[in-house]
Amino acid sequence: MGDVKSIEKAVEALPPSELAEFRLWFAEFDAAAWDKQIEQDAASGKLDDLASEAHAVG
């Protein structure tokens, strides 16, 4: 069984209180990963065209 399937089964088996704790942790984890990706994209110039478009419209 793959890692993802194992994780899915483990999450499904959590009691409600632990599921709530996991959901909070995952939301924070996901937000941090998103922030890191945006920072990397901005630093590498991947967002330059979008920024130029936004400034031209605004």
Structure in a nutshell:
84% of the residues lie in helices and 0% in strands. The chain is built from 3 helices and no strands. The protein starts with a helix and ends with a helix.
Helix content: over 70%
Total strand segments = 0
Strand content: under 5%
Biggest sheet descriptor? none
Radius of gyration equals: 18 Å
Class from helix and strand fractions: mainly alpha
On the 0 to 100 scale, the average pLDDT is 94
Task: Determine the N-to-C terminus distance.
Answer: 51 Å
The shape is: elongated
Oligomer: single chain
Low-pLDDT sequence parts:
none
The H/E string reads HHH
Number of domains: 1
Compute the number of helices.
3
Topology:
Elements (H helix, E strand, L loop, with lengths): L2 H10 L3 H29 L3 H10 L1
Structural notes for this entry:
The protein is mostly helical and about 60 residues long. The chain has one domain. Helices cover about 85% and strands about 0% of the residues. The chain has three helices and no strands. The chain has helices spanning about 5-10, 15-45, 50-55.
